[in-house]
Amino acid sequence: MSQTRTMPCTRTGTSLRSVPTGEGNISTRVSMETYPQIKICGLTLPEEAAATAQLGADAIGMVFYPPSPRHLSIVQAEQVAAALPDRVTRVGVFVNPEMDLLAEAIERCGLGIVQLHGNESPEWVAQISQRFDIQVIKTLFATRPPCLADAGAYAVSAFLVEAGKGLLPGGNAETWDWGGAAGFIRHYATALAGGLAPDNVLAAIAAALPDAVDASSGLESAPGRKDLKKVERFITAVRQSAAHFIGTGRRLRPVFALSDEPMTP
């Protein structure tokens, strides 16, 4: 299998190498507490993004895809990004994007990571990485292409895996057999997504042992609006998953934290 790689990046977000070790930063948490990194996706309001960051999210996802109820204009995304502390990585979520949109979003919103959620080819993904010198996460699906078996063709910093059910790209609040991704996760830095919510994320982590988790609709009060009590319960549950990694010999690999360290499968 091909190894994933990390593109060096100096944009806003926590670097596992450059930030001094100290209580509360991602470097200390990943290496010592051993629970997955947390991305909360689909934020649409600056105040909810700021509150989510304060609750402990490592990354915030902003969706640039008009059919989604969580879609943001560049101006809206700028406002969400501006509300976040520097330690939180800004992730732009795109579906088969044009280069001009990527360029504007990366520049104006201070994106640290681009997450590609469509049918982007390995060649197109490589062009994005090279042109913008930015970390890229590619989404792969359990039930449709691009599928988990396609991972070796992509040179990216990490993968996000989910079922691929529903009308829109994304989890569509659909749960699936998270444990079916466990073998894939052993080889690649991976965020687990798809139907994750406060009441099931601990079971999902136990089944798959991912490096990171990504949730959106399972934490909402309405499309695009986060229920902060659900967000808090979700983050608390993820933090309780550390026991599942004890004795596994696994070191969690950075997915949503900016790093120029090589990722090993």
Could you please describe the fold and organization of this structure?
- The protein has 265 residues and is an alpha/beta fold.
- It has a single domain, classed as TIM Barrel.
- The chain has 8 helices and 10 strands.
- It has helices at residues 26-33, 46-55, 74-82, 99-109, 122-132, 182-187, 201-208, 228-239; strands at 37-41, 59-64, 89-94, 113-116, 135-141, 158-162, 190-192, 212-215, 220-222, 225-226.
- The strands form 2 sheets. The chain has an 8-stranded parallel β-barrel with strand order 1-2-3-4-5-6-7-8, surrounded by 6 helices. Strands 9-10 form a two-stranded antiparallel sheet.
- α7 (201-208) links the parallel β7 (190-192) and β8.
- The longest helix is centred in the last third of the chain and has 12 residues, at 228-239.
- It starts with 25 loop residues before the first helix and ends in a 26-residue tail after the last helix.
